[in-house]
Specification:
alpha/beta, SIR2/SIRT2 'Small Domain', three-stranded antiparallel β-sheet, 12 helices, about 40% helix, about 15% strand
Length: about 260
Amino acid sequence: MIARLAGLMRRHQPCVVLTGAGISTESGIPDFRSPTGLWAEFDPMEYATIEAFRSDPEKVWRFYAPRISMLVEAEPNPAHHALAELEGLGFVRAIVTQNIDLLHERAGSREVIEVHGSIRTSTCPHCDASHGLDRVLRMLGDRPGTAPRCESCAGLLKPDVVFFGELLPEQETERAYALARTAGLLLVVGSSLEVFPVAGLPYETLEGGGQVAIVNVGPTPVDRSAAIRIEESAAVVLPELARILRSGGGSARQRSA
């Protein structure tokens, strides 16, 4: 099956990768919607909506602070490293990710579109001052159990992640849709494709004449339309995929020259 996926990636270029929480579980980061995921234990309406943040930001920060620390301590796993290698070989044009954990960037991927934001910064809703991750972590460490405050106006900061009820960042979303429309292959990795508008990306690729491949543990709404579906961990599939494509000699760019 992985050899078939390699063949699809060779024949259908450019390839765009869409990643979800499932690619980071091997790094020790829990997913959201599985029976053992984050939302099985916590009510997302209580901690992950913009309304919850506005009504009680201190409570939301008490929930997020240890999880941000966990994301910072997590390391990219073989799936992240494999995608970075495939980008370097010219087989992956870009990665569109629903994840906020920065693991693609830390693994060496260069073209990463973060459609759900990231933990990289937090912004003050009052004066728009941006605070980097290191600074926010220092604030959380200095005052455990309290929300970090803006160093310019003392307002409570908001992490630059997309809460339920917020619009996705316009520039990143437009870029993701443009990439999907022109993709010869959209490789979905570790996403259940349940959250729109990102879940609409495979249909953009299919309508544009491209193919969709899925590597995911669990079904997705697009399975029947996919050229191939592999029910396996990304940390198993992607390194083998990179090995096959690497051993084929040259790169995608050299073969198309």
